[in-house]
TrEMBL record:
This protein's name: Sigma-70 family RNA polymerase sigma factor
SUPFAM superfamilies: Sigma2 domain of RNA polymerase sigma factors, Sigma3 and sigma4 domains of RNA polymerase sigma factors
Pfam family, one: Sigma70_r4_2
Domain RNA polymerase sigma factor 70 region 4 type: 125-176
Keyword DNA damage: no
Alphabetical list of PANTHER family matching this protein: RNA POLYMERASE ECF-TYPE SIGMA FACTO, RNA POLYMERASE SIGMA FACTOR HI_1459-RELATED
Family, as annotated: Belongs to the sigma-70 factor family. ECF subfamily.
GO terms, biological process: DNA-templated transcription initiation
Amino acid sequence: MENREQHTEQDLVRRLAAGETEAFQVLFHRYFRRLTFFAANIINNQEDANDLAQEALYQLWLHRSAFREEAQLRSWLYVATRNAALNYLKSSQRRSQRHEETARLLESAGQDLLETAMAREELLELLLQELEAVPPPQATVLKLLFIEGLSYRDIAEKLQIPEATIRKQKERGVRLLRATLLQKKMWSLLLLLNAAQLGSRGRLL
């Protein structure tokens, strides 16, 4: 079982470089949600973040012959998405003081900051995968609370149900999620979950 997962990833990149659309589809599904979260955290617009992620992946297909390993491909995708987000913020129609500050930060950001963002989005992807095992009512509340960072009041208005119900759904969902994370020994996500429970805002990442 020598580096089986790594071999699979390298094989996937090799097939992509050869122009196999099936390999591209696998990589698209692997990275689309991560890149969308990454872009949304920068531009604060979910719909446009989807477009930026799709554009980065489209550019990946156009440059597919340039990659030899997934680590190189992964880094390229995040840089491409960051640059697209930077261009988005620089656009005259969207310029504001907050956007200008974010754009300056992105321009001066080093590789360490990019690596941190990449790790964060991958943790978020893991969290979403684990939330699939939580019943839909609780999972929806946890996503809105922990991922979108909405308040109890905002969630109640969005779902058209009482705040008390939101709190109960959250408690049940957290119990189920914590039990799953403990069973799988996913300590990083457990720490994030506990920190969110103690913080004033619910957002995990």
